[in-house]
């Protein structure tokens, strides 16, 4: 049987900046989704990469005394090594300087040109270089860019234009007919208002700098960096070859982005695709932004949180857990060391780690580490088993909604129920009387089996921790969908006493 296809993408990151937790956040969310879908039996294509063209990169390279490609080669390695360290399981990493991408962009541009939806004209407006965006005078705030508040300059240039205005009604109809296309809802409403205000034709070429893909047939122009960058989602699948990966994975199931780049993904991208006669992604989800200790992250404030340093100190899984648990996806969040340490100590060391540690230690003490067959199920056992089984559907529903934090909460409720179950069944009391041996064996089985299911689901969020937990539980198979039912642990299995998965962090020493 062929597996169903699932395609998830992250934005491609600019190489004029080094990776920080904001970038790690989008990639991490995509990774959890990709891992979860694989666990559920999907054939997953998970794409990330780097955005290497444009004036920003050209300027950064000049400032660093490098060619743009030297800069890109150097910075893209930092992204790649961070993804490795963070256990990111992408299928492909696209760079916009690769031949496959340049070829795909040229073809896409030509197709839209041939259909008459790209035409040559002249452009005069206010340009924000850092955002690579033109603004009308009425959009400016004190002549500054309404997005980043930096000064803009008046530019006039010959330019190719994309007839975006032509697609206004078609786009609106698409958004209205597909309530899940733009998420969360508040962002969807913003886009609807924006489109209703009227779409202007969009300048899609530049003549003021060189670093980009030449416009086919008119090489004094380079393709606008967003036209170039957005196309990565299809060039990575082999476009213009529409068989192979493109045929299998396009349109994307989920495109994850930050809220700042929603307009590009929910207005520009779908209209480009419409003009090229290609299908539109099913869903684009804009997550919120991270501040740091209450402030905007910026180079000038020197408060950029460097994920490498966090991973070295606390481990990849703790960082993965924190970023997705702390803030509901879609809302803004604040990063602070105190909350990170608090999460590690309370959720990971106390709740998760302790449960495994206590339960495996008890099995060692009472049954020499050998799992026994469970006997009669009591009401208490049944409630615990049912809660564990219900977790599977809850996590599935929350992940369908991209509610990562709620999915983790649902798992943690079962972990807390496990700790409570131990307190209520009091195995240490049962162990005092030989007549309770069967009851004690049952309690041990329930405690450990519930955790097996917890660690199966955790494989999407915390891959190394899941591996360790399952190894302690004597489970040799990799987590899989068929195993997400009660009864996977087999009597007779030897289970070792678990070491602390997450050592407690002394807050004062930090
Ligand atoms: N190159 C474009 C994307 C092109 S996609 C076809 C770009 N790159 S970026 O490197 O500036 O940003 C990439 C992603 O990082 C965006 O989704 C952005 O929202 C995210 N973040 C950057 N800073 C962030 C925070 N402080 N918090 C959360 N996410 C943030 O835009």
Task: Sum up the structure in keywords.
alpha/beta, single chain, 16 strands, six-stranded parallel β-sheet, 510 residues, binds 5'-O-[(L-methionyl)-sulphamoyl]adenosine
Bound molecules: 5'-O-[(L-methionyl)-sulphamoyl]adenosine
- Helical amount: 40-55%
Beta-strand fraction estimate: 15-25%
- In order across it, which strands form the biggest sheet? 3-2-1-12-13-7
Oligomer designation: single chain
How would you sum up this structure, described in words?
- Helix 15 (404-425) runs antiparallel to helix 17 (437-461).
- The mean pLDDT is 95.
- It is elongated, with a radius of gyration of 26 Å.
- The termini are far apart.
- The protein has helices at residues 21-39, 55-64, 68-85, 99-114, 168-177, 185-196, 225-230, 232-235, 244-249, 262-276, 307-314, 316-326, 337-367, 379-400, 404-425, 427-430, 437-461, 463-472, and strands at 5-14, 43-51, 92-95, 118-128, 133-135, 153-162, 182-183, 202-203, 205-206, 214-215, 218-223, 254-258, 284-287, 290-292, 295-296, 333-335.
- It is α/β, with parallel strands linked by helices and 510 residues long.
- Strands 3-2-1-12-13-7 form a 6-stranded parallel β-sheet, with helices on both faces. A 4-stranded antiparallel β-sheet has the order 5-4-6-8. It has a 3-stranded antiparallel β-sheet with strand order 9-11-10.
- 5'-O-[(L-methionyl)-sulphamoyl]adenosine binds next to strand 1, helix 1, helix 7 and strand 12.
């Amino acid at each position: 049987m062929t597996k169903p296809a699932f395609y998830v993408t992250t934005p491609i990151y600019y190489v004029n900046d080094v990776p920080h937790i904001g970038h790690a956040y989008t990639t991490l969310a995509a990774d959890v989704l990709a891992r979860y879908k694989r666990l559920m039996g999907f054939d997953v294509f998970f794409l990330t990469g780097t955005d290497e063209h444009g004036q920003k990169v050209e300027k950064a390279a000049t400032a660093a005394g490098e060619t743009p490609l030297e800069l890109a080669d150097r910075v893209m390695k930092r992204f790649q090594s961070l993804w490795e360290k963070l256990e990111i399981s992408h299928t492909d990493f696209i760079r916009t300087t690769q031949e496959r991408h340049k070829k795909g962009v040229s073809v896409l541009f030509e197709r839209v040109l041939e259909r008459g939806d790209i035409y040559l004209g002249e452009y005069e407006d206010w340009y924000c270089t850092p955002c690579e965006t033109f603004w009308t005078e009425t959009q400016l705030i004190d002549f500054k860019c309404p997005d980043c508040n930096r000064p803009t300059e008046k530019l006039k240039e010959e330019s190719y234009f994309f007839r975006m205005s032509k697609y206004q009604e078609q786009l609106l109809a698409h958004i209205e007919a597909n309530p899940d296309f733009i998420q969360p809802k508040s962002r969807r409403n913003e886009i609807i208002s924006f489109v209703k205000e009227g779409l202007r034709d969009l300048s899609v070429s530049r003549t003021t700098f060189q670093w980009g893909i030449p416009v086919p047939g008119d090489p004094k122009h380079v393709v606008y960096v967003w036209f170039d960058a957005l196309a990565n989602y299809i060039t990575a699948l082999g476009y213009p070859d529409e068989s192979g990966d493109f045929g299998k994975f396009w349109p994307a199931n989920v495109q994850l982005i930050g809220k700042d780049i929603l307009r590009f993904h929910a207005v520009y991208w779908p209209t480009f695709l419409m003009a090229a006669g290609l299908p539109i992604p099913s869903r684009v989800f804009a997550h919120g932004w991270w501040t740091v200790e209450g402030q905007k992250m910026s180079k000038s404030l020197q408060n950029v949180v460097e994920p490498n340093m966090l991973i070295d100190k606390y481990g990849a899984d703790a960082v993965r857990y924190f970023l997705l648990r702390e803030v509901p996806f879609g809302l803004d969040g604040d990063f602070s060391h105190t909350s990170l340490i608090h999460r590690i100590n309370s959720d990971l060391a106390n709740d998760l780690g302790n449960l495994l540690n206590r339960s495996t230690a008890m099995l060692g003490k009472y049954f020499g580490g050998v799992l026994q067959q469970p006997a009669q199920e009591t009401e208490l056992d049944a409630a615990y088993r049912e809660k564990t089984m219900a977790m599977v559907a809850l996590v599935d529903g929350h992940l369908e909604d991209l509610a990562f934090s709620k999915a983790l909460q649902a798992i943690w409720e079962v972990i807390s129920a496990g700790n409570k179950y131990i307190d209520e069944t009091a195995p240490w009391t049962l162990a005092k009387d030989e007549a309770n041996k069967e009851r004690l064996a049952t309690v041990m089985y329930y405690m450990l089996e519930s955790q097996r299911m917890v660690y199966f689901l955790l494989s999407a969020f915390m891959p190394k921790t899941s591996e360790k937990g399952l190894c302690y539980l004597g489970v040799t198979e990799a987590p899989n969908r068929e195993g997400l039912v009660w009864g996977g642990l087999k009597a007779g299995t030897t289970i070792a006493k678990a070491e602390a998965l997450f050592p407690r962090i002394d807050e004062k020493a930090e």
